[in-house]
Write a structure and sequence with these properties.
This protein has three domains: 8-88, Winged helix-like DNA-binding domain superfamily/Winged helix DNA-binding domain (Arc Repressor Mutant, subunit A); 94-163 and 264-298, D-Maltodextrin-Binding Protein, domain 2 (3-Layer(aba) Sandwich); 165-259, Periplasmic binding protein-like II (D-Maltodextrin-Binding Protein, domain 2, 3-Layer(aba) Sandwich). It is α/β, with parallel strands linked by helices and 299 residues long. Helix 5 links the parallel strand 3 and strand 4 (123-129). Helix 1 (8-18) crosses helix 4 and helix 2 (21-28) crosses helix 3. The strands form four sheets. The chain has a five-stranded mixed sheet with strand order 4-3-5-14-6, covered by helices on one side. Strands 11-8-12-7-13 form a five-stranded mixed sheet. Strands 1-2 form a two-stranded antiparallel sheet. It has helices spanning 8-18, 21-28, 32-46, 62-88, 102-119, 171-177, 222-230, 240-249, 278-290, and strands at 51-53, 58-60, 94-100, 123-129, 143-148, 156-161, 165-169, 191-194, 203-205, 209-211, 215-219, 235-239, 253-255, 265-270.
């Protein structure tokens, strides 16, 4: 494999080491004439003679020796960095920072992350579990998992599951208070509300319908709200993945399913579609495949 032809200074270092324009050209994968032209351009720019050459051999001048001693290590460092970057383009490796909701991480991402780590041992994965919306670019995250309707048009998004927000209550609560048939019926119910969400004041439904609900309990913890719903304290509007197992087991019941927003979903997002690092592409593809054909809570 030829070395990168990154600068005239790098060409000069390779010529000195090879003691030959021809050998340096073979090392760099370019013709001897190109090497000669690059050295002449460097000498013209610096205004000194770096190499003495004739038809049989070359020798390094005093100025050339001085320059070589000062740049050879730097050229090696730069070429090593360029080679490593090139390797990143063909083999997934490096640090990957991922943000995901707390409950999703606790309930579902363990096996997904373990499988990914085994498949890509050269990737150092950093998983940050938080229910806040992180700034991927400003906080230097590579990937985030998000639920609901996406607002940031600057991010590339792939839907990993169709389920978004759902309203749930326990069978006992619904038996006592009745099952709402439309969003306006929520005014007659007790709300279990995550106070750190954009829909904390009014719950959102299809057709841009928003509906207020009296507050019974507010918390920034989905775990607390899920348990409160299971215990029959009221209704909660939550991302489906937060309550998927409870719905499957029958400890919670979905209501107003016909009013769920069609553009909601579970998404994996990342900052740009240009020159996507292989580590990001590998992780995104792995997560999407892990949620197909059914999500973990439907297993």
């Amino acid at each position: 494999m030829s070395a990168p032809l990154s600068s005239d200074l790098a060409v000069f270092v390779h010529v000195v080491r090879a003691s030959s324009f021809t050998a340096a050209g073979e090392r760099l994968g370019v013709p001897k004439s190109t090497i000669s032209r690059r050295i002449a351009r460097l000498e013209d720019r610096l205004g000194v003679r770096l190499l003495q050459r004739n038809s049989r051999a070359i020798s390094v001048t005093e100025e050339g020796s001085w320059l070589y001693d000062r740049i050879a290590d730097a050229v090696d460092t730069l070429e090593a960095a360029e080679a490593e970057l090139g390797e990143l383009a063909v083999r997934p490796r490096g640090r990957l920072r991922v943000s995901a909701p707390v409950t999703m991480g606790h309930l579902y991402l363990g096996p997904v992350i373990a499988d990914f780590a085994r498949a890509y041992p050269d990737i150092e994965l950093q998983l940050d579990l938080s229910d806040r919306f992180v700034d991927l670019v400003g906080e230097r995250y590579d990937v985030a998992l998000r639920a609901g309707t996406l607002k940031d048009a600057d991010l590339v998004a792939r839907r990993i599951w169709h389920a978004g927000l759902t309203v749930v209550g326990s069978p006992a609560y619904l038996a006592e208070r009745g099952t709402p048939s439309s969003p306006k019926d929520l005014q007659e119910h007790d709300g279990l509300i995550n106070d750190h969400t954009p829909w904390r004041e009014r719950w959102r439904f299809a057709g841009d319908v928003v509906a207020p609900i009296p507050r019974r309990l507010t918390s920034n913890s989905w775990d607390v709200l899920r348990e409160a719903a299971v215990q029959g304290l009221g209704l909660a509007q939550v991302p489906t993945f937060q309550v998927g197992r409870e719905i499957a087991e029958g400890t919670l019941v979905e209501v107003l399913a016909d009013h769920q927003r069609p553009d909601d979903g579970l998404w994996i997002v990342f900052p740009t579609a240009d020159h996507i690092p292989l580590k990001v592409r590998a992780f995104v593809d792995h997560v999407v495949a892990s949620f197909t054909p059914k999500a973990p809570w439907e297993a």
